[in-house]
């Protein structure tokens, strides 16, 4: 009787007998291309160039990675060719002007050329960032998205901390991560200022050509220089850890967006009939065995 009850519970799991095989193989996120993008080889040149020639599809993560080197690949894949002159022109102009003003700075020593050089390089970097962000926002495989994509949330968080959480609809996490980033960045600045200060003092004390009139000894300045550098490096590591954590968080929670949780818990009891020579009924039974079936739905 108890064996029949156990067999009945097994029937309830799969409707036919035996343990439900898909219990540990269910795909919670049905975005097959996104799963392929994160589980297959990291990058394939043939897949990437085939995609930008519109010969095959490619995941957003791989397209993003390839476009970091082959500029404009995302815009080509998205069939937005008119953006290519803007991409190449803005990045090329920023780099070219930066090199020009860098030569001017080294030849004249004029500090204004150095500042202009820095602004030009910063502009090129901003144009590069905008290219990647634009390609990710406009990424489309030919049909409208019906659910959150893990690769898209990951790239968003890589480009701008907190944007992946915004994409996932988890807005409350954004101030948490930004608090961590600002906290580590502020203490990094504090200890970096101290490090530079005590480094300068130590160099002045140990330089025989400089007459040092301060009250600190060389050993004391050396101690504070080293301790400041150590804590500065700790907060650099902390900043990187928080940044990576928000990227991982965006990826994981985007992938689990379609995790189906049903609140329907029910217990069904009914009769069950086991065929003869069944492993649960025993080999000695020549006739079908009648018992009770307990079905737990969860």
Write structural notes for this entry.
The protein has 298 residues and is mainly α. 61% of the residues lie in helices and 6% in strands. The protein has 11 helices and 2 strands. Strands 1-2 form a two-stranded antiparallel sheet. It is flat and about 105 Å long.
Provide the fold topology.
Elements: H1 2-14, H2 32-39, H3 45-52, H4 60-67, H5 73-77, H6 84-108, H7 111-137, H8 150-159, H9 163-168, H10 173-206, H11 218-255, E1 266-274, E2 289-297
Helix pairs in contact: 6-7, 7-8, 8-11, 10-11
In short:
This protein has eleven helices and two strands. The protein has 298 residues and is mainly alpha-helical. It has helices spanning 2-14, 32-39, 45-52, 60-67, 73-77, 84-108, 111-137, 150-159, 163-168, 173-206, 218-255, and strands at 266-274, 289-297.
Distance linking N and C termini:
24 Å
Round the Cα radius of gyration to an integer and report it. Answer: 31 Å
Query: Sheet bearing the most strands, described?
Result: 2 strands, antiparallel
H/E order of the elements? HHHHHHHHHHHEE
User: Counting H and I runs of at least 4 residues, what is the number of helices?
Assistant: 11
User: What portion of the residues fall into strands of 2 or more residues?
Assistant: 5-15%
Question: How would you classify the helix and strand content by structural class?
Answer: mainly alpha
DSSP strand count: 2
Entry keywords:
2 strands, 298 residues, mainly alpha, disordered N terminus, single chain
